[in-house]
Backbone:
């Protein structure tokens, strides 16, 4: 496993959280706050079906589920939902998601991080993977490009810096918030409202008669 201090290692799933909302990521991975809603429960159910450690073989393809993965070089660790080891030597990670087949940079960063770990573990390039929709039963293939790798490693460093600082980013208070399971803990409307308050400094300046010699 990674030899970096605990505060310097990054859980792969944190990349998706950070990409979606840095404050959500900090609440989960710095403040250790988590709550469930309908969307997270559905997502958990989809992952449970994929995360049970098993190995199956079909048509020459070895399929590993719930495979622990890590990168000592980048300080990454986590678990791959499904990894296919194909007869031609191709290593093909598959990330399970609830909801319809969609294009999402958040999912792609998480998948790319898995590819980076698998490359280090098995000494082979991983250039393709997929995001599987458990509701539509369809795969969206993702190319692990140089640009995607750069964005993924930038996110890794951003999460690492956030964890080291221990600071909670300000809330976004936008259309993402109502469906977030952490909306109550985050209080985006209230916190954003406080930042807009203007304080009259004169209220805290004592009058001459109030100054004690």
Residues:
């Amino acid at each position: 496993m990674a030899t970096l201090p605990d505060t310097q290692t990054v859980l792969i799933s944190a990349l998706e959280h950070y990409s979606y909302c840095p404050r959500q990521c900090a609440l989960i991975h710095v403040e250790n706050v988590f709550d469930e809603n309908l969307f997270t429960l559905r997502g958990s159910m989809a992952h449970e079906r994929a995360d049970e450690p098993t190995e199956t073989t079909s048509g020459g393809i070895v399929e590993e589920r719930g495979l622990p993965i890590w990168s000592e070089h980048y300080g990454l660790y986590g678990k791959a939902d499904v990894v296919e080891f194909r007869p031609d030597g191709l290593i093909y990670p598959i990330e399970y998601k609830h909801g319809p087949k969609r294009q999402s940079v958040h999912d792609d960063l998480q998948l790319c991080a898995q590819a980076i770990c698998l490359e280090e573990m098995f000494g082979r390039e991983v250039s393709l993977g997929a995001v599987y929709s458990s509701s539509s039963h369809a795969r969206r293939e993702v190319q692990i490009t140089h640009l995607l790798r750069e964005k993924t490693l930038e996110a890794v460093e951003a999460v690492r810096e956030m964890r080291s600082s221990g600071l909670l980013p300000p809330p976004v208070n936008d259309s993402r918030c109502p469906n977030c399971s952490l909306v109550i803990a985050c209080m985006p409307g209230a916190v954003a409202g406080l930042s807009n308050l203007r304080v009259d400094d004169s209220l805290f300046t004592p009058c001459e008669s109030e100054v004690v010699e």
